[in-house]
Amino acid sequence: MINFSHVTKKFGDYAAVADLSLTVEPQAAVALWGPNGAGKTTVIKCLLGLLKYKGSIAVNDFDVQKQGRQARGQIGYVPQAQSFYNDMGTLELTRYFGQLKRAPAQQPAELLEQVGLAEHLDKKVGALSGGMKQRLAVALALLGDPPVIVMDEPTSNLDAGARDALLQLLANVKAAGKTIVFTSHRLEEIETLADRVLVMDRGQVRLTCTAAELPKRLGWRSQVKLRVPAASLDTALTVLQDDGFTVRRNGVGVIVDVAHGDKARPIHALSAADICVVDFVHLSDVEAE
Amino acid sequence: MSIRTIWIIAQKEMRDALHNRWFVLYTIAFVGLALAFSYMALAGAGISGFAGFGRTAASLINLVLLIVPLMALTIGAQSLAGEQEHGTLAYLLAQPVTRLEVFAGKYLGLMLCLLASLTLGFGIAGLVMAANGGGASNPLSYVRLVWQTFLLSLTMLSAGFLISALTKRAGVAIGIGLFLWLAFVFLGDLGLMGTAIAMRMPVGELFLLSLSNPLQVFKMASILEINTSLDILGPAGIYALQEYGRSLRWLFLAVLALWIVAPAAFAYLRFANRSDL
Protein backbone atom coordinates (compact mmCIF):
# COMPACT_ATOMS: atom_id res chain seq x y z
CA MET A 1 0.00 0.00 0.00
CA ILE A 2 1.17 3.52 -0.77
CA ASN A 3 0.11 6.36 1.49
CA PHE A 4 0.64 10.06 0.73
CA SER A 5 -0.16 12.27 3.70
CA HIS A 6 -0.34 16.05 3.25
CA VAL A 7 2.55 16.09 0.78
CA THR A 8 3.66 19.53 -0.33
CA LYS A 9 6.59 20.26 -2.60
CA LYS A 10 7.51 23.84 -3.36
CA PHE A 11 10.06 25.22 -5.81
CA GLY A 12 10.60 28.71 -4.43
CA ASP A 13 7.12 30.10 -3.89
CA TYR A 14 5.55 27.81 -6.46
CA ALA A 15 3.81 24.73 -5.04
CA ALA A 16 4.31 21.94 -7.57
CA VAL A 17 2.40 19.62 -5.23
CA ALA A 18 0.04 21.13 -2.69
CA ASP A 19 -1.16 19.17 0.34
CA LEU A 20 -1.64 15.88 -1.54
CA SER A 21 -3.21 13.05 0.46
CA LEU A 22 -3.81 9.77 -1.28
CA THR A 23 -3.94 6.05 -0.58
CA VAL A 24 -3.22 3.42 -3.21
CA GLU A 25 -4.43 -0.02 -2.17
CA PRO A 26 -2.40 -3.16 -2.95
CA GLN A 27 -2.82 -4.37 -6.55
CA ALA A 28 -4.63 -1.16 -7.54
CA ALA A 29 -3.60 0.81 -10.62
CA VAL A 30 -3.79 4.57 -10.25
CA ALA A 31 -3.14 7.04 -13.05
CA LEU A 32 -2.11 10.66 -12.54
CA TRP A 33 -3.60 12.69 -15.34
CA GLY A 34 -3.11 16.34 -16.10
CA PRO A 35 -1.51 18.94 -18.33
CA ASN A 36 2.22 19.75 -18.31
CA GLY A 37 3.11 21.45 -15.04
CA ALA A 38 0.24 19.81 -13.16
CA GLY A 39 2.70 18.21 -10.73
CA LYS A 40 2.47 14.59 -11.89
CA THR A 41 6.20 14.00 -12.34
CA THR A 42 6.94 15.85 -9.09
CA VAL A 43 4.65 13.39 -7.27
CA ILE A 44 6.60 10.49 -8.82
CA LYS A 45 9.95 12.06 -7.86
CA CYS A 46 8.75 12.56 -4.28
CA LEU A 47 7.58 8.94 -4.17
CA LEU A 48 11.06 7.81 -5.28
CA GLY A 49 12.78 10.04 -2.73
CA LEU A 50 14.49 12.10 -5.43
CA LEU A 51 12.99 15.31 -4.02
CA LYS A 52 12.62 16.48 -0.46
CA TYR A 53 9.08 17.45 0.53
CA LYS A 54 6.85 18.29 3.47
CA GLY A 55 4.40 15.68 4.71
CA SER A 56 5.01 11.96 4.48
CA ILE A 57 4.92 9.16 1.92
CA ALA A 58 5.01 5.52 2.97
CA VAL A 59 5.41 2.51 0.68
CA ASN A 60 4.33 -0.68 2.45
CA ASP A 61 4.93 1.15 5.75
CA PHE A 62 8.45 2.29 4.81
CA ASP A 63 8.79 6.07 5.04
CA VAL A 64 10.37 7.36 1.82
CA GLN A 65 12.43 10.09 3.50
CA LYS A 66 13.50 8.13 6.59
CA GLN A 67 13.80 4.62 5.12
CA GLY A 68 14.55 5.50 1.52
CA ARG A 69 16.42 2.34 0.62
CA GLN A 70 13.69 0.04 1.99
CA ALA A 71 10.92 2.13 0.41
CA ARG A 72 12.64 2.10 -3.00
CA GLY A 73 13.22 -1.63 -2.55
CA GLN A 74 9.43 -2.00 -2.85
CA ILE A 75 9.36 -0.07 -6.14
CA GLY A 76 10.27 -0.78 -9.74
CA TYR A 77 10.60 2.44 -11.72
CA VAL A 78 9.99 3.01 -15.43
CA PRO A 79 11.23 6.53 -16.28
CA GLN A 80 9.90 8.84 -18.98
CA ALA A 81 13.27 9.44 -20.62
CA GLN A 82 15.28 6.32 -21.34
CA SER A 83 18.28 7.37 -19.28
CA PHE A 84 20.47 4.30 -19.17
CA TYR A 85 24.18 3.68 -19.59
CA ASN A 86 24.26 3.52 -23.38
CA ASP A 87 27.73 1.99 -23.59
CA MET A 88 26.76 -1.09 -21.60
CA GLY A 89 25.37 -4.28 -23.10
CA THR A 90 21.68 -5.01 -22.50
CA LEU A 91 22.31 -8.04 -20.31
CA GLU A 92 25.28 -6.35 -18.62
CA LEU A 93 23.13 -3.36 -17.66
CA THR A 94 20.31 -5.60 -16.43
CA ARG A 95 22.76 -7.61 -14.33
CA TYR A 96 24.16 -4.40 -12.82
CA PHE A 97 20.76 -3.19 -11.65
CA GLY A 98 19.88 -6.76 -10.68
CA GLN A 99 22.85 -6.76 -8.31
CA LEU A 100 21.79 -3.42 -6.82
CA LYS A 101 18.27 -4.77 -6.31
CA ARG A 102 19.55 -8.12 -5.04
CA ALA A 103 17.64 -10.00 -7.71
CA PRO A 104 18.32 -13.74 -8.23
CA ALA A 105 21.28 -14.29 -10.59
CA GLN A 106 19.19 -15.86 -13.37
CA GLN A 107 16.43 -13.20 -13.28
CA PRO A 108 18.04 -10.60 -15.63
CA ALA A 109 18.19 -13.04 -18.57
CA GLU A 110 14.71 -14.38 -17.79
CA LEU A 111 13.16 -10.92 -17.70
CA LEU A 112 14.86 -9.85 -20.91
CA GLU A 113 13.38 -12.90 -22.58
CA GLN A 114 9.99 -12.09 -21.07
CA VAL A 115 10.02 -8.56 -22.58
CA GLY A 116 11.18 -9.81 -25.98
CA LEU A 117 14.81 -8.76 -25.82
CA ALA A 118 16.36 -12.24 -25.74
CA GLU A 119 17.96 -11.67 -29.15
CA HIS A 120 19.59 -8.42 -28.05
CA LEU A 121 21.43 -9.47 -24.89
CA ASP A 122 24.85 -8.39 -26.14
CA LYS A 123 23.69 -5.34 -28.04
CA LYS A 124 24.72 -1.96 -26.60
CA VAL A 125 21.83 -0.21 -24.89
CA GLY A 126 22.49 2.86 -27.06
CA ALA A 127 21.84 0.76 -30.17
CA LEU A 128 18.35 -0.33 -29.07
CA SER A 129 15.28 1.33 -30.57
CA GLY A 130 13.02 3.53 -28.42
CA GLY A 131 10.48 0.73 -28.02
CA MET A 132 13.17 -1.78 -27.05
CA LYS A 133 14.62 0.62 -24.51
CA GLN A 134 11.24 1.08 -22.93
CA ARG A 135 10.76 -2.69 -22.76
CA LEU A 136 14.22 -2.86 -21.18
CA ALA A 137 13.00 -0.26 -18.64
CA VAL A 138 10.08 -2.55 -17.77
CA ALA A 139 12.46 -5.50 -17.34
CA LEU A 140 14.69 -3.41 -15.06
CA ALA A 141 11.65 -2.32 -13.05
CA LEU A 142 10.63 -5.95 -12.51
CA LEU A 143 14.08 -6.98 -11.19
CA GLY A 144 13.79 -8.23 -7.63
CA ASP A 145 10.05 -8.69 -8.10
CA PRO A 146 8.96 -5.43 -6.38
CA PRO A 147 5.26 -5.22 -5.39
CA VAL A 148 4.91 -1.65 -6.72
CA ILE A 149 5.58 -0.38 -10.25
CA VAL A 150 5.92 3.38 -10.77
CA MET A 151 5.92 4.73 -14.32
CA ASP A 152 6.34 8.25 -15.65
CA GLU A 153 4.68 8.61 -19.08
CA PRO A 154 5.76 5.09 -20.08
CA THR A 155 4.69 5.28 -23.75
CA SER A 156 5.20 8.98 -24.44
CA ASN A 157 8.16 8.68 -26.82
CA LEU A 158 7.02 5.63 -28.77
CA ASP A 159 5.47 5.15 -32.19
CA ALA A 160 2.07 3.43 -32.48
CA GLY A 161 3.43 -0.08 -32.98
CA ALA A 162 5.88 0.10 -30.10
CA ARG A 163 3.20 1.69 -27.92
CA ASP A 164 0.76 -1.19 -28.55
CA ALA A 165 3.45 -3.78 -27.75
CA LEU A 166 4.43 -1.99 -24.54
CA LEU A 167 0.82 -1.57 -23.43
CA GLN A 168 0.29 -5.31 -23.84
CA LEU A 169 3.39 -5.93 -21.74
CA LEU A 170 2.20 -3.50 -19.05
CA ALA A 171 -1.26 -5.10 -19.05
CA ASN A 172 0.48 -8.40 -18.24
CA VAL A 173 2.38 -6.68 -15.42
CA LYS A 174 -0.90 -5.42 -14.03
CA ALA A 175 -2.47 -8.86 -14.36
CA ALA A 176 0.41 -10.27 -12.31
CA GLY A 177 -0.99 -8.34 -9.35
CA LYS A 178 1.40 -5.41 -9.09
CA THR A 179 0.35 -2.14 -7.53
CA ILE A 180 0.80 0.48 -10.25
CA VAL A 181 1.12 4.26 -10.08
CA PHE A 182 1.73 6.03 -13.36
CA THR A 183 1.46 9.38 -15.08
CA SER A 184 0.00 9.64 -18.54
CA HIS A 185 -1.32 11.92 -21.24
CA ARG A 186 -2.87 9.09 -23.26
CA LEU A 187 -6.43 7.90 -22.79
CA GLU A 188 -5.59 4.55 -24.38
CA GLU A 189 -2.97 3.96 -21.69
CA ILE A 190 -5.37 4.98 -18.93
CA GLU A 191 -8.13 2.72 -20.28
CA THR A 192 -5.78 -0.24 -20.52
CA LEU A 193 -4.10 0.07 -17.14
CA ALA A 194 -5.87 2.31 -14.64
CA ASP A 195 -8.57 1.41 -12.15
CA ARG A 196 -8.67 4.95 -10.86
CA VAL A 197 -7.65 8.27 -12.37
CA LEU A 198 -6.58 11.35 -10.41
CA VAL A 199 -6.88 14.49 -12.49
CA MET A 200 -4.22 16.94 -11.30
CA ASP A 201 -3.86 20.63 -11.93
CA ARG A 202 -1.41 23.06 -10.37
CA GLY A 203 -0.26 20.55 -7.79
CA GLN A 204 -3.69 19.50 -6.57
CA VAL A 205 -6.04 16.62 -7.30
CA ARG A 206 -9.09 18.22 -8.91
CA LEU A 207 -11.04 15.09 -9.71
CA THR A 208 -11.03 11.36 -9.02
CA CYS A 209 -12.88 8.98 -11.31
CA THR A 210 -12.64 5.67 -13.16
CA ALA A 211 -10.90 5.43 -16.53
CA ALA A 212 -14.24 4.94 -18.30
CA GLU A 213 -15.67 8.08 -16.73
CA LEU A 214 -12.71 10.29 -17.56
CA PRO A 215 -13.70 11.61 -21.02
CA LYS A 216 -17.22 12.43 -19.88
CA ARG A 217 -16.07 14.03 -16.62
CA LEU A 218 -13.56 16.14 -18.52
CA GLY A 219 -16.20 17.08 -21.11
CA TRP A 220 -14.15 15.73 -23.97
CA ARG A 221 -15.41 16.10 -27.55
CA SER A 222 -14.13 14.44 -30.69
CA GLN A 223 -14.09 15.66 -34.28
CA VAL A 224 -14.64 13.24 -37.13
CA LYS A 225 -14.54 13.87 -40.84
CA LEU A 226 -17.02 11.91 -42.95
CA ARG A 227 -16.68 11.69 -46.71
CA VAL A 228 -19.91 11.26 -48.64
CA PRO A 229 -20.73 11.37 -52.39
CA ALA A 230 -20.74 14.97 -53.69
CA ALA A 231 -24.41 14.70 -54.71
CA SER A 232 -25.37 13.82 -51.10
CA LEU A 233 -23.31 16.52 -49.34
CA ASP A 234 -26.08 19.06 -48.78
CA THR A 235 -28.52 16.38 -47.66
CA ALA A 236 -25.91 14.96 -45.26
CA LEU A 237 -25.41 18.40 -43.68
CA THR A 238 -29.17 18.78 -43.17
CA VAL A 239 -29.59 15.25 -41.73
CA LEU A 240 -26.78 15.71 -39.22
CA GLN A 241 -27.93 19.19 -38.16
CA ASP A 242 -31.48 17.87 -37.72
CA ASP A 243 -30.04 15.10 -35.52
CA GLY A 244 -28.44 17.74 -33.23
CA PHE A 245 -24.83 17.58 -34.40
CA THR A 246 -22.60 20.60 -34.82
CA VAL A 247 -21.41 20.13 -38.37
CA ARG A 248 -19.64 22.06 -41.11
CA ARG A 249 -18.75 21.41 -44.70
CA ASN A 250 -15.12 20.62 -45.54
CA GLY A 251 -14.18 19.96 -49.18
CA VAL A 252 -15.76 16.67 -50.22
CA GLY A 253 -16.91 15.82 -46.71
CA VAL A 254 -18.32 17.13 -43.46
CA ILE A 255 -16.66 17.64 -40.08
CA VAL A 256 -18.85 16.61 -37.18
CA ASP A 257 -18.39 17.45 -33.51
CA VAL A 258 -19.37 14.43 -31.32
CA ALA A 259 -19.18 13.40 -27.70
CA HIS A 260 -16.14 11.25 -26.87
CA GLY A 261 -17.00 7.58 -27.35
CA ASP A 262 -19.87 8.39 -29.67
CA LYS A 263 -18.05 8.62 -32.99
CA ALA A 264 -20.19 6.04 -34.82
CA ARG A 265 -23.48 7.87 -34.21
CA PRO A 266 -23.26 10.30 -37.18
CA ILE A 267 -22.47 7.35 -39.47
CA HIS A 268 -25.60 5.55 -38.28
CA ALA A 269 -27.63 8.75 -38.77
CA LEU A 270 -26.45 9.08 -42.38
CA SER A 271 -26.99 5.37 -43.10
CA ALA A 272 -30.54 5.65 -41.78
CA ALA A 273 -31.08 8.46 -44.32
CA ASP A 274 -29.68 6.21 -47.12
CA ILE A 275 -26.52 8.32 -47.47
CA CYS A 276 -23.42 6.22 -48.06
CA VAL A 277 -20.35 7.15 -45.95
CA VAL A 278 -17.36 6.58 -48.24
CA ASP A 279 -14.60 7.28 -45.71
CA PHE A 280 -14.10 8.19 -42.07
CA VAL A 281 -11.26 10.04 -40.29
CA HIS A 282 -10.91 10.73 -36.57
CA LEU A 283 -9.45 14.24 -36.47
CA SER A 284 -8.93 15.01 -32.79
CA ASP A 285 -10.00 14.72 -29.17
CA VAL A 286 -10.58 18.07 -27.53
CA GLU A 287 -10.45 18.45 -23.76
CA ALA A 288 -12.93 20.97 -22.35
CA GLU A 289 -11.45 23.99 -20.58
CA MET B 1 25.21 1.63 4.67
CA SER B 2 25.82 -1.48 2.57
CA ILE B 3 29.44 -2.31 1.71
CA ARG B 4 28.12 -4.69 -0.95
CA THR B 5 26.25 -1.87 -2.72
CA ILE B 6 29.29 0.42 -2.52
CA TRP B 7 31.45 -2.27 -4.08
CA ILE B 8 28.95 -2.92 -6.91
CA ILE B 9 28.93 0.80 -7.77
CA ALA B 10 32.73 0.98 -7.42
CA GLN B 11 33.16 -1.88 -9.90
CA LYS B 12 30.90 -0.09 -12.38
CA GLU B 13 32.97 3.08 -11.91
CA MET B 14 36.20 1.16 -12.61
CA ARG B 15 34.65 -0.34 -15.73
CA ASP B 16 33.70 3.16 -16.90
CA ALA B 17 37.20 4.51 -16.20
CA LEU B 18 38.71 1.81 -18.40
CA HIS B 19 36.35 2.95 -21.17
CA ASN B 20 37.27 6.62 -20.59
CA ARG B 21 39.75 7.55 -23.31
CA TRP B 22 41.11 10.50 -21.33
CA PHE B 23 41.89 8.33 -18.36
CA VAL B 24 43.60 5.73 -20.55
CA LEU B 25 45.55 8.49 -22.29
CA TYR B 26 46.70 10.01 -19.00
CA THR B 27 47.81 6.59 -17.79
CA ILE B 28 49.80 5.90 -20.96
CA ALA B 29 51.36 9.37 -20.77
CA PHE B 30 52.25 8.92 -17.12
CA VAL B 31 53.84 5.50 -17.64
CA GLY B 32 55.77 6.68 -20.69
CA LEU B 33 57.03 9.87 -19.08
CA ALA B 34 57.92 8.12 -15.80
CA LEU B 35 60.15 5.79 -17.81
CA ALA B 36 61.65 8.67 -19.77
CA PHE B 37 62.29 10.72 -16.62
CA SER B 38 64.00 7.83 -14.88
CA TYR B 39 66.33 7.50 -17.86
CA MET B 40 67.00 11.22 -18.20
CA ALA B 41 67.67 11.69 -14.49
CA LEU B 42 70.97 9.87 -14.79
CA ALA B 43 71.80 11.47 -18.10
CA GLY B 44 71.61 14.77 -16.19
CA ALA B 45 74.32 13.49 -13.90
CA GLY B 46 76.58 12.90 -16.87
CA ILE B 47 76.24 9.13 -16.98
CA SER B 48 74.22 7.42 -19.63
CA GLY B 49 71.74 4.73 -18.63
CA PHE B 50 69.10 4.52 -15.93
CA ALA B 51 69.20 6.62 -12.77
CA GLY B 52 69.05 5.39 -9.20
CA PHE B 53 65.83 5.55 -7.24
CA GLY B 54 66.69 8.74 -5.29
CA ARG B 55 67.57 10.81 -8.34
CA THR B 56 64.62 9.44 -10.29
CA ALA B 57 62.28 10.26 -7.41
CA ALA B 58 63.49 13.86 -7.48
CA SER B 59 62.96 14.18 -11.21
CA LEU B 60 59.57 12.52 -11.04
CA ILE B 61 58.26 15.17 -8.63
CA ASN B 62 57.81 17.63 -11.48
CA LEU B 63 56.08 15.04 -13.64
CA VAL B 64 53.73 14.14 -10.80
CA LEU B 65 52.98 17.81 -10.14
CA LEU B 66 51.87 18.27 -13.74
CA ILE B 67 50.05 15.07 -14.67
CA VAL B 68 48.56 13.58 -11.51
CA PRO B 69 46.45 16.61 -10.48
CA LEU B 70 45.17 16.95 -14.04
CA MET B 71 44.24 13.29 -14.16
CA ALA B 72 42.51 13.22 -10.77
CA LEU B 73 40.72 16.56 -11.16
CA THR B 74 39.23 15.70 -14.55
CA ILE B 75 37.96 12.22 -13.66
CA GLY B 76 36.61 13.50 -10.34
CA ALA B 77 34.90 16.45 -12.02
CA GLN B 78 33.17 14.16 -14.52
CA SER B 79 31.91 11.69 -11.93
CA LEU B 80 28.60 13.11 -10.67
CA ALA B 81 28.07 15.91 -13.21
CA GLY B 82 28.47 13.52 -16.16
CA GLU B 83 25.84 11.16 -14.80
CA GLN B 84 23.48 14.00 -14.00
CA GLU B 85 23.87 15.43 -17.50
CA HIS B 86 22.99 12.08 -19.06
CA GLY B 87 20.04 11.56 -16.72
CA THR B 88 21.45 8.32 -15.34
CA LEU B 89 22.04 9.71 -11.84
CA ALA B 90 18.32 10.15 -11.11
CA TYR B 91 17.64 6.62 -12.31
CA LEU B 92 20.45 5.22 -10.17
CA LEU B 93 19.14 7.08 -7.11
CA ALA B 94 15.64 5.69 -7.77
CA GLN B 95 17.05 2.24 -6.96
CA PRO B 96 17.26 0.80 -3.42
CA VAL B 97 20.53 2.63 -2.69
CA THR B 98 21.40 5.59 -0.48
CA ARG B 99 23.19 8.70 -1.66
CA LEU B 100 26.08 7.89 0.68
CA GLU B 101 26.49 4.49 -1.00
CA VAL B 102 26.43 6.05 -4.47
CA PHE B 103 28.96 8.71 -3.48
CA ALA B 104 31.24 6.27 -1.65
CA GLY B 105 31.02 3.73 -4.49
CA LYS B 106 31.95 6.29 -7.09
CA TYR B 107 34.80 7.68 -4.99
CA LEU B 108 36.16 4.22 -4.19
CA GLY B 109 36.00 3.13 -7.82
CA LEU B 110 37.84 6.17 -9.13
CA MET B 111 40.33 6.06 -6.26
CA LEU B 112 41.25 2.47 -7.09
CA CYS B 113 41.59 3.35 -10.78
CA LEU B 114 43.86 6.28 -9.99
CA LEU B 115 46.02 4.27 -7.62
CA ALA B 116 46.23 1.41 -10.12
CA SER B 117 47.29 3.83 -12.84
CA LEU B 118 49.97 5.41 -10.64
CA THR B 119 51.17 2.04 -9.42
CA LEU B 120 51.54 0.94 -13.03
CA GLY B 121 53.61 4.03 -13.91
CA PHE B 122 55.83 3.95 -10.82
CA GLY B 123 55.98 0.15 -10.89
CA ILE B 124 57.25 -0.14 -14.46
CA ALA B 125 59.78 2.66 -13.95
CA GLY B 126 60.88 1.06 -10.67
CA LEU B 127 61.25 -2.41 -12.17
CA VAL B 128 63.29 -1.08 -15.07
CA MET B 129 65.58 0.84 -12.69
CA ALA B 130 65.99 -2.17 -10.43
CA ALA B 131 66.89 -4.28 -13.45
CA ASN B 132 69.52 -1.68 -14.42
CA GLY B 133 71.21 -1.57 -11.04
CA GLY B 134 69.32 1.42 -9.63
CA GLY B 135 68.46 -0.60 -6.55
CA ALA B 136 71.90 0.17 -5.14
CA SER B 137 70.77 3.71 -4.37
CA ASN B 138 67.88 4.68 -2.11
CA PRO B 139 64.68 2.77 -3.03
CA LEU B 140 62.90 4.00 0.12
CA SER B 141 62.78 7.57 -1.18
CA TYR B 142 61.12 6.21 -4.30
CA VAL B 143 58.53 4.30 -2.26
CA ARG B 144 57.82 7.43 -0.21
CA LEU B 145 57.31 9.44 -3.36
CA VAL B 146 54.80 6.85 -4.57
CA TRP B 147 52.96 7.04 -1.25
CA GLN B 148 52.87 10.84 -1.31
CA THR B 149 51.72 10.80 -4.92
CA PHE B 150 48.82 8.58 -3.86
CA LEU B 151 47.88 11.21 -1.28
CA LEU B 152 48.21 14.05 -3.80
CA SER B 153 46.01 12.20 -6.28
CA LEU B 154 43.32 11.78 -3.63
CA THR B 155 43.40 15.51 -2.72
CA MET B 156 42.73 16.33 -6.35
CA LEU B 157 40.12 13.58 -6.69
CA SER B 158 38.25 15.08 -3.72
CA ALA B 159 38.50 18.56 -5.24
CA GLY B 160 37.18 17.10 -8.52
CA PHE B 161 34.23 15.51 -6.71
CA LEU B 162 33.45 18.84 -5.05
CA ILE B 163 33.39 20.56 -8.44
CA SER B 164 31.20 17.75 -9.78
CA ALA B 165 28.74 18.05 -6.90
CA LEU B 166 28.44 21.80 -7.48
CA THR B 167 27.75 21.61 -11.23
CA LYS B 168 25.20 19.92 -13.49
CA ARG B 169 27.18 19.58 -16.69
CA ALA B 170 30.33 17.56 -17.27
CA GLY B 171 31.76 20.18 -19.64
CA VAL B 172 31.43 22.94 -17.07
CA ALA B 173 32.87 20.70 -14.35
CA ILE B 174 35.90 19.78 -16.48
CA GLY B 175 36.41 23.47 -17.36
CA ILE B 176 36.45 24.43 -13.69
CA GLY B 177 38.75 21.48 -12.98
CA LEU B 178 41.21 22.64 -15.63
CA PHE B 179 41.16 26.17 -14.25
CA LEU B 180 41.81 24.84 -10.75
CA TRP B 181 44.68 22.72 -12.08
CA LEU B 182 46.15 25.78 -13.76
CA ALA B 183 45.73 27.76 -10.55
CA PHE B 184 47.39 25.09 -8.42
CA VAL B 185 50.25 24.34 -10.82
CA PHE B 186 51.19 27.75 -12.19
CA LEU B 187 49.31 30.56 -10.50
CA GLY B 188 50.06 29.03 -7.09
CA ASP B 189 53.82 29.49 -7.46
CA LEU B 190 53.57 32.88 -9.14
CA GLY B 191 50.93 34.03 -6.69
CA LEU B 192 53.05 33.05 -3.71
CA MET B 193 56.11 34.82 -5.10
CA GLY B 194 54.12 37.89 -6.07
CA THR B 195 52.32 38.10 -2.75
CA ALA B 196 55.55 37.66 -0.82
CA ILE B 197 57.25 40.48 -2.74
CA ALA B 198 54.30 42.88 -2.93
CA MET B 199 53.28 42.51 0.71
CA ARG B 200 56.80 42.02 2.08
CA MET B 201 55.40 38.93 3.73
CA PRO B 202 57.36 37.47 6.63
CA VAL B 203 58.81 34.07 5.88
CA GLY B 204 56.58 32.32 8.46
CA GLU B 205 53.41 33.62 6.83
CA LEU B 206 54.72 32.72 3.39
CA PHE B 207 55.20 29.14 4.57
CA LEU B 208 51.69 28.99 6.04
CA LEU B 209 50.26 30.43 2.82
CA SER B 210 52.04 27.77 0.81
CA LEU B 211 50.22 25.11 2.85
CA SER B 212 46.98 26.27 1.22
CA ASN B 213 48.11 24.67 -2.05
CA PRO B 214 48.19 20.86 -1.86
CA LEU B 215 50.69 20.76 -4.73
CA GLN B 216 53.12 22.91 -2.75
CA VAL B 217 52.63 20.67 0.25
CA PHE B 218 53.32 17.59 -1.86
CA LYS B 219 56.41 19.24 -3.33
CA MET B 220 57.80 20.21 0.07
CA ALA B 221 57.00 16.81 1.58
CA SER B 222 58.65 14.99 -1.32
CA ILE B 223 61.78 17.15 -1.27
CA LEU B 224 62.01 16.64 2.49
CA GLU B 225 61.87 12.86 2.03
CA ILE B 226 64.59 12.86 -0.62
CA ASN B 227 66.85 15.61 0.74
CA THR B 228 66.06 15.56 4.47
CA SER B 229 66.29 19.34 4.09
CA LEU B 230 64.24 22.10 2.48
CA ASP B 231 67.21 24.40 1.71
CA ILE B 232 66.39 24.12 -1.95
CA LEU B 233 63.15 26.02 -1.31
CA GLY B 234 64.99 29.04 0.12
CA PRO B 235 64.27 30.95 3.35
CA ALA B 236 60.72 29.57 3.71
CA GLY B 237 62.02 26.02 3.55
CA ILE B 238 64.80 26.69 6.05
CA TYR B 239 62.32 28.43 8.36
CA ALA B 240 59.87 25.51 8.17
CA LEU B 241 62.50 22.96 9.11
CA GLN B 242 63.83 25.09 11.98
CA GLU B 243 60.34 25.90 13.28
CA TYR B 244 58.70 22.49 13.00
CA GLY B 245 61.69 20.14 12.97
CA ARG B 246 60.74 16.47 12.91
CA SER B 247 57.02 17.23 13.12
CA LEU B 248 57.17 18.90 9.69
CA ARG B 249 56.62 15.53 8.01
CA TRP B 250 53.44 15.02 10.07
CA LEU B 251 52.30 18.56 9.37
CA PHE B 252 52.51 17.92 5.62
CA LEU B 253 50.69 14.62 6.05
CA ALA B 254 47.94 16.28 8.09
CA VAL B 255 47.47 19.05 5.51
CA LEU B 256 47.24 16.52 2.67
CA ALA B 257 44.76 14.46 4.71
CA LEU B 258 42.68 17.58 5.33
CA TRP B 259 42.73 18.29 1.59
CA ILE B 260 41.40 14.78 0.97
CA VAL B 261 38.70 14.74 3.62
CA ALA B 262 37.33 18.31 3.59
CA PRO B 263 36.45 18.65 -0.14
CA ALA B 264 35.06 15.10 -0.19
CA ALA B 265 32.89 15.85 2.86
CA PHE B 266 31.59 19.09 1.33
CA ALA B 267 30.97 17.29 -1.96
CA TYR B 268 28.94 14.61 -0.21
CA LEU B 269 26.90 17.16 1.77
CA ARG B 270 26.09 19.02 -1.42
CA PHE B 271 25.24 15.78 -3.25
CA ALA B 272 23.09 14.51 -0.37
CA ASN B 273 21.02 17.69 -0.38
CA ARG B 274 20.61 18.05 -4.12
CA SER B 275 17.05 18.01 -5.33
CA ASP B 276 17.58 19.25 -8.89
CA LEU B 277 17.97 15.76 -10.31
Task: Describe what this molecule looks like in 3D.
Chain A is α/β, with parallel strands linked by helices. Chain A folds into two domains: 2-217, P-loop containing nucleotide triphosphate hydrolases (Rossmann fold, 3-Layer(aba) Sandwich), CATH 3.40.50.300; 221-286, Alpha-Beta Plaits, CATH 3.30.70.100. Chain A is built from ten helices and 14 strands. Chain A has helices at 40-47, 68-73, 90-100, 107-114, 130-142, 160-175, 187-193, 214-217, 233-242, 265-272, and strands spanning 2-11, 14-24, 29-33, 54-59, 62-63, 75-78, 148-152, 179-184, 196-201, 204-209, 221-227, 246-250, 253-259, 279-286. In chain A, 40% of the residues are buried. The model of chain A has no long low-confidence stretch (mean pLDDT 87). Chain B has one domain. Chain B is built from eleven helices and no strands. Classes of the chains: A alpha/beta (289), B mainly alpha (277). The interface between A and B is medium-sized, with 26 and 20 residues.
Percentage beta strand of chain A: 25-35%
Query: How large is the count of helical segments of chain A?
Result: 10
Distance between the termini of chain A: 34 Å
Helix content of chain A: 25-40%
Spell out the helices and strands of chain B N to C: HHHHHHHHHHH
In total, how many beta strands of chain B? 0
CATH class of the largest domain in chain A: Alpha Beta
Helix content of chain B: over 70%
Instruction: Tell the overall outline of chain B.
Output: globular
* CATH architectural category of the largest domain in chain A: 3-Layer(aba) Sandwich
* Largest sheet properties of chain A: 6 strands, mixed
Compute the gyration radius of chain B: what is it?
A: 20 Å
Shape verdict of chain A:
globular
Distance between the termini of chain B: 22 Å
Tally of individual domains of chain B: 1
SSE string of chain A: EEEHEEHEHHHEHEHEEHEHEEHE
Number of strands of chain A: 14
